[in-house]
Design goal:
Distance between the termini of chain A: 16 Å
CATH architecture of the largest domain in chain B: Up-down Bundle
Largest sheet of chain A: 5 strands, mixed
Largest interface: A-B, 21 and 21 residues
CATH class of chain A: Alpha Beta
Oligomer: heterodimer
CATH topology of chain A: Nonspecific Lipid-transfer Protein, Chain A
CATH topology of the largest domain in chain B: Dehydroquinate synthase-like, alpha domain
Order of helices and strands of chain B: EHEHHEHEHEEEEEHHHHHHHH
Radius of gyration of chain B: 20 Å
Distance between the termini of chain B: 34 Å
Strand order of the largest sheet of chain B: 1-9-6-4-2-3
Strand order of the largest sheet of chain A: 4-3-2-5-6
Strand content of chain A: 25-35%
Largest sheet of chain B: 6 strands, parallel
Number of strands of chain B: 9
Number of helices of chain A: 7
Helix content of chain A: 25-40%
Number of strands of chain A: 7
Helix content of chain B: 40-55%
Shape of chain A: globular
Chain lengths: ~140, ~375
């Protein structure tokens, strides 16, 4: 049963999927720090308001995975911002997150070299995201 | 070279180019086309001593808001902050940078602070800006960095002990004036090393994962021009035709790598630059052939195009043969222009390369390399070949 994207239920499912992944713990052993995703509103795609998602990653473990307010999102070590359609492309792996940053399709507040050094972790969590059975606000492909 | 049937890319290159001997005399007219009324000139002491700034400030006349010339070889956060403060105090609404990479990157940082306020430490991230920044005209005095047309700047933050990478589409220079006379006095070694910086940009743009037809076209023509004219410039610096062709090549390579990105050569050059202060162009030039060798299996089709651009692909060669011909020709080219051959010539030690090999894996460039690199031992081996 697909879960509505960017809801708390969906965040719980995403966290559970990461915890259940057999490789995640070892791949992400060096990563420390929280990541927020800010989804810019796109009313035409049924995203009328900005959505803030906070995820806490720590050396292969995961902590808080919550839909939050702007203030909490801004407190993350890395804050990544983009239009809803871009995030959906990332989830479907139609858009490479690093390339999107360099092309200005996504914005990131935080230390780029750190992200690059841990690119396998980033790719892994995106892989897992794509496996969460998701119902997108503007429909699935 | 075949491209994927589902090829998709963004190409971004908004900089206006003004080219020609004595084109800098139009700096005041061109400044007006960008809406500028008072220009701060950003440069360094070497450029001032070479007499390259006087003509520009004379052309600007009363519209020159002042000259900020305190830019060191590797610029830093404090330099940018001081430059922006200087420009602000003097009422500048446009920045004219006259120099090489460090000067241009300083000016890029200043443009952000002039528009957004604050200090450079307030901008830690990628593509954070959401509006056009203070207009920036670049007058390069070297032909290599390509920074006159790219969205990136590298600024040292001594307090944090790291280089800050600014990547902002809203901060690409609006205009570059390429005047061959501005590079006429560049000595042979600097001509060769900055030229090899441009050559490396071009080759890396061809082999990088995000390369596409537009960037390939720019990069390959840059290689043609560099291969033909860089030796002429090294031999006879006052050949303005050759100087101009190399300037154009460096700018084309800048557009190419600014969109297609760079790979392992830059990751290694950045790292050995940080560890042992090897000048960027020299590190690129020394490392390029062995990095091509390293990538050979994954980038043979791209290097075959490089071979064609260099005119060394012979009839009957398949892509792999042609790629190897390109690598041989690149080694010979570097010798021909009198470029340093080994990192040990630059005072690099065994400990330096071990540290740099580790650092290379966290450089942003490495993710675009055609051959995936996950083990610092692979990088160390390339470094060792060049000791």
């Amino acid at each position: 049963m697909p879960i509505k994207a960017m809801t708390q239920e969906w965040m719980d499912a995403y966290k559970a999927a990461i915890q259940a992944d057999p490789d995640y713990k070892s791949i992400a052993k060096d990563w420390e720090g929280s990541v927020s995703l800010v989804v810019n509103p796109e009313p035409a795609r049924n995203v009328p308001e900005p959505i803030y998602l906070f995820m806490d990653y720590w050396h292969g473990d995961v902590g808080d995975f919550v839909v939050c307010d702007k203030e909490k999102a801004d407190s993350a070590k890395f804050v990544m911002t983009g239009d809803y359609a871009r995030w959906k492309q990332v989830a479907y792996k139609e858009l490479d997150a690093t390339k999107a940053l360099l092309q200005g399709k996504l914005k990131m507040k935080g230390d780029l070299p750190y992200v690059v050094r841990n690119i396998k972790t980033v790719n892994k969590v995106i892989d897992i995201l794509g496996k969460v059975d998701t119902l997108w606000p503007d429909g699935n492909k | 070279m075949a491209y994927d049937s589902d090829l998709s890319f963004n190409y971004f290159g908004p900089t206006k180019i003004v080219f020609g001997a004595n084109a800098v005399r139009d700096v005041d007219i061109e400044m007006g086309t960008l809406g500028g009324t008072r220009a701060v000139v950003v440069t360094d002491q070497g450029i001032i001593k070479a007499g390259l700034v006087d003509g520009i400030t004379a052309c600007l006349g009363g519209r020159c808001a002042g000259v900020f010339s305190d830019v060191p070889q590797d610029t830093g956060v404090e330099v940018v902050n001081a430059g922006a403060e200087f420009a602000r105090k003097n009422g500048a609404d446009i920045v004219v940078s006259v120099g090489g990479g460090s000067v241009i990157d300083t000016a890029k940082g200043m443009c952000i602070l002039l528009t957004e306020g604050g200090t450079l430490r307030d901008f830690n991230g990628v593509q954070l800006l959401s509006r056009p920044q203070t207009p920036h005209m670049v007058i390069p005095t070297t032909a290599g960095t390509g920074s006159e047309v790219t969205n990136a700047a590298v600024i040292m933050d001594k307090e944090m002990g790291q280089k800050r990478l600014l990547v902002e589409n809203f901060n690409v220079p609006r205009m570059a004036i390429l005047d061959p006379k501005m590079t006429e006095k560049l000595p042979p070694l600097l001509t060769a090393s900055t030229g090899m910086d441009a050559m490396t940009h071009a080759v890396e743009a061809v082999h990088s994962i995000p390369h596409e037809p537009l960037t390939d076209g720019l990069a390959l023509h840059a290689i043609r021009l560099l291969y033909k004219y860089l030796p002429v410039c090294v031999e006879n610096g006052s050949d303005l035709h050759a100087r101009g062709q190399v300037q154009i090549a460096a700018t084309m390579a800048g557009w190419a790598f600014g969109n297609a990105m760079v790979g392992i050569v830059h990751a290694m050059a950045h790292s050995i630059g940080a560890v042992a202060h090897v000048p960027h162009g020299i590190a690129n030039g020394i490392l390029l052939p062995d990095c091509m060798e390293f990538n050979l299996e994954d980038a043979a089709d791209g290097y075959a195009m490089v071979a064609e651009a260099m005119g060394v692909r012979e009839k009957g060669m398949d892509d792999s043969d042609a790629a190897q011909a390109a690598i041989r020709a690149m080694r010979e080219f570097i010798r021909k222009i009198g470029h340093p051959q080994k990192l040990s010539e630059m005072g690099v030690s065994g400990k330096d390369i071990e540290k740099a090999a580790d650092m290379s894996l966290s450089d942003g460039s490495i993710v675009n390399n055609p051959r995936i690199v996950m083990d610092p031992a692979e990088v160390l081996e390339i470094f060792q070949k060049n000791m």
